[in-house]
């Protein structure tokens, strides 16, 4: 299982990082570290079962519905 973040939909609200800071690290400006300038999306590496559960919770909590599981 992997998670995907639609970086166009993400509004840097940070709920994902509160839930799973290791999976959704924020930089000093409160932006997801993996959100490269100009990138449309980020797809994670294959997740462990525990990380998959955390990512699913973050997906549920994201107010922009920017996180999807694959
Ligand atoms: S919770 Fe959603 S909108 Fe907020 S930073 Fe995470 S992915 Fe972006």
TrEMBL record:
What cofactors does this protein use? Answer: [3Fe-4S] cluster
Q: Which Pfam families match?
A: Fer4_15
An example molecular function term from Gene Ontology annotations: metal ion binding
Q: Which UniProt keywords apply?
A: 3Fe-4S, Electron transport, Iron, Iron-sulfur, Metal-binding, Plasmid, Transport
Renumbered to this chain, the signal peptide range is: none
The source's superkingdom equals: Bacteria
Q: What is this protein called?
A: Ferredoxin
Please give the organism: Mycolicibacterium madagascariense
């Amino acid at each position: 299982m992997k998670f995907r973040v639609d970086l166009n939909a993400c509004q840097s609200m940070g709920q994902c990082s509160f839930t799973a800071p290791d999976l959704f690290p924020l930089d000093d400006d409160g932006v997801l570290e993996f959100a490269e300038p100009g990138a449309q999306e980020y797809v994670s590496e294959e997740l462990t079962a525990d990380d998959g559960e955390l990512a699913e919770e973050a997906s549920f909590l994201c107010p922009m519905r920017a996180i999807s599981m694959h």
